[in-house]
Design goal:
The chain is of the alpha/beta class. It is built from 19 helices and 26 strands. Helix 13 runs antiparallel to helix 14. The structure holds fructose -6-phosphate.
Amino acid sequence: MCGIVGYISKSGDRKSINVGIEALKRLEYRGYDSAGLAFWDESRQVICQKATGRISNLEKKMGGNGFLPLDPVILHTRWATHGNVSEANAHPHCDCTGNIFVVHNGIIENYVALREQLSQEGHKFRSETDTEIIAHLIEKCFNGNLEEAVRKSLGYLVGTYGLAVISSYDPDKIVAARLSSPLLIGLADDHFLLASDASAIISHTRKVVYLEDGEIAVINRDKFTIIREKKTEELDWPEYQSGKGSFSHYMLKEIMEQPGSVEQTIKGRLIPDEGNAKLGGLETVEKKLRQIDNIYIVGCGTSRHAGLLGEYMLEEYAGIRTKTEAASEFRYRKTLLDDSTALVAISQSGETADTLAAIREAGKRGALTLGITNVVGSTQARETDAGVYTRCGPEIGVASTKAFTSQVATLILLTLFLGRQRHLTITTGQRIVKDLLRMPEMLEAALQCDTQVKQLAEKYQAFDNFLYLGRKYSYPIAREGAHKIKETAYVHAEGCRGGEPKHCELALISDKFPSICIVPSDSVYEKMISNIEELKARNGPVIAIATEGNREIQNLADDVVYIPEAMELLTPILSIIPLQLFAYHFAVLRGADIDKPRNLAKSVTVE
Ligand code: F6R
């Protein structure tokens, strides 16, 4: 949620601030309520600067202040957890003497007790944060060697951290540590970069070392040391996908990218003749997967909605009992697991704290753990037994769009793979493969509704409540459509099963409460039409998302947006498109900050 960057060069250079800020800006989508940095100046003193709001405010503050910066530098962009948004609460935080500076992601759970103890020992606190504790602990433990002081301090902490520390007592090094909050070191020719997310450093180097939980890294000018031998990995992200291009927001850019991103997800993974999928990431567990007769899918937010779709398809086509649960619940309930159970964790970032906790819990209890994630080398990718990457390229918009359609496409690949291991016929497999191969082209066609959807957003912009309805494969899409408009436009929306409003939500319906009904021509079409009749009988305005060619629906709905015809299990990839666009245009009209939704961050690394 917050972002960390560190920079240290071989010879000590003056590029540190510019490089650091540029890297930090690439993390701004993760946390953006304040930012700060600490660096050396010519007289070998640590200078700390902070600003609330965007990183550009910090830049303005730095401009023309007369500092001649030297590295090392550590930087941070904050998403508030402990204490409100203020300069005092922005990172870096320092000890009583102003010689030890810390930036931190994560949460220190025992900070109240530690603060009390340190206060009694005479330490003076300047912020309301949990992070400041760490600076004072290092001060307390310091005996000439920074890494040793950091190591001792970590022993006091309960919680999670990714942190970076510099000190004028032990200069020319950055000390970093990780527990359940990602950190990596980028190895460039003349400098090292520390970051909490690979996207910060990708323009400098593709050689990275990921820190594991419990490790401390000491990054000197000419070398870095960590407790265990680490292997260097190659980041294989295509460069062209970074930046906003000509789009006004990342969210719109990413919606429009979906024909290409879904194509990347399925590329080279389909075997048309065999009606099957080829998933290299599952090869090591292929035999074990044949023995699986229960699947639990876990994820949060949008990833969980993809999981709900997985539940429908894995039961219908692979014949495996499947249940989807919010990762935040799964970790605490006593779900029955054994070695015939597989847990499938879905996460764009691969760093969501609740999802990681669910994976660890399931692994401890004997289940096979599989991951579907987008970020190569993420904690999820490294901690699951096996998995499949969604390959949709970096997703920067906080509202997840292209990651969702790629997650759904990946679940269809998984369904084919597990189905063909069991009773899915080659003919049905071939039909699924055929439609999936047409998906990029069908997505191009679905995106043609953009202008019409923008007009609908204008027509409905005064409404503050929406009901989203769908049945079977369209139910998770109703949930996801409501989720998108809530998080981007801050209006109330509910996503329900089409058959349920007569038990409750019809009480809300009037000419002031519109519904968005996902009603493709599928196996539950007639049922859904009856549900729309129920809304119309109560004067509720209805926007229908229907299959191209269905003219009948125009007699019932107030507005109709058409999507191309596809097999029932593939239709969600198409029906979500008008709902993403509606949320986007509606939010623009309501003046919301699209890429930085109120109170939300991209990667939720706290519980
Ligand atoms: C929705 C959204 C969030 C995420 C959720 C899980 O647009 O962005 O609801 O889907 O925080 O994130 P990941 O997929 O990274 O685990």
